[in-house]
Amino acid sequence: MKTSDFYYELPQELIAQDPLEDRSSSRLLILDRKTGEMEHRVFRDIVEYLNPGDCLVVNNTKVIPARLMGVKEDTGAGIEVLLLKRKADNVWETLVKPGKKARPGARIVFGDGLLKGEVLEVVEEGNRLIRFEYEGIFEEILDRLGQMPLPPYITHQLKDKNRYQTVYAEHDGSAAAPTAGLHFTPELLREIEEKGVKLAHVTLHVGLGTFRPVKVEDVTQHHMHSEFYIVEEDQAKLINDTKAAGGRVICVGTTSCRTLESAAGEDGILRAGSGWTDIFIYPGYRFKIMDALITNFHLPESTLLMLVSAFADKETIMKAYEEAVKERYRFFSFGDAMFIK
């Protein structure tokens, strides 16, 4: 299976640069994965496609304002630091630009000295381990100094930080939003629950590996970056009870899907717990828990496009993408959505 098998033509102007004013007014392509039939709706119509007894699984991770603009303490040269992964209390794995200015021992100052950092070492893929020094609470300082780490294909400035968060975001830790969840409003979630659909929360802190291109032509040779997930005991029970009662488990986004598929046994039972996952789902994969998926439209040749192609069959997905391009859907993080049932 080749990476190039997952290529499609996307006009640049279809890449959504800004979120819509009303989250739930995005368009929604309904795809029946067995028949290939498609319908065009509006996202808030999702309620019509959910049944009492179903369980909607959301990822309640919260994006941290992980992009910091600083200067080198000795030269005053500008330097950009992106927080990727907390390794210890004040030590983070980071992506630094330009890397040549960030050799071990280099000191970086942010926000007139409110926050300082020292490069400890260079690790895998040229990332840097940085130890931070500050007074007070790190999260509060980050909130003051940091910017949202928007994906590279979004060139517009985000006016409201909260628009790159889901309305149910709770646990700090992501470098990117679980974007399928951006379409939900509190009112829509209430309507869904009133219909008798249960809501389960899991956590997967999304890393920037999400945006890393697949650089190998043989799909099976690609290695995913690991991400931290948590499945609480009561949420695992809620999901397992749904399956046992014959309801559908519907994942909101590929991150919820990867969390469930990582934490489930071969018997299809979801285990509570936490850990790191580098699960890579591509065609040929047998799903253990997920019955349906709400997802955005993904980049050509991306691991996310491979995941949805594993769920619905590659030809069916590529036809749906062709249709979405033809119908001028908006693509990627701030774009429209698809419900694969």
Describe, in plain words, how this protein is organized in 3D.
This protein is α/β, with parallel strands linked by helices. It has 2 domains: 3-63 and 160-340, QueA-like (3-Layer(aba) Sandwich), CATH 3.40.1780.10; 67-145, QueA-like (Thrombin, subunit H, Beta Barrel), CATH 2.40.10. Helices cover 18% and strands 27% of the residues. The chain has helices at residues 138-145, 186-194, 233-244, 254-263, 303-312, 314-326; strands spanning 27-31, 38-42, 55-59, 61-63, 67-72, 78-86, 91-97, 107-110, 115-122, 128-134, 171-174, 198-204, 227-231, 249-252, 273-277, 292-296, 337-340. Strands 2-1-17-16-14-3-12-13-15 form a 9-stranded mixed sheet, covered by helices on one side.
Primary descriptors:
341 residues, alpha/beta, QueA-like, Thrombin, subunit H, 2 domains, nine-stranded mixed β-sheet, six-stranded antiparallel barrel
Biggest sheet: strands side by side, in what order? 2-1-17-16-14-3-12-13-15
Low-confidence stretches: none
Q: How big is the Rg?
A: 20 Å
Q: Mind summarizing the main beta sheet?
A: 9 strands, mixed
Q: What percent of the residues sit in helical stretches (DSSP H or I)? A: 10-25%
- Oligomeric description of these chains: single chain
Q: What's the shape? A: globular
CA-CA gap between termini: 25 Å
CATH architecture designation of the largest domain: 3-Layer(aba) Sandwich
Q: Structural class of the helices, strands and pairings?
A: alpha/beta
Number of discrete helical segments:
6
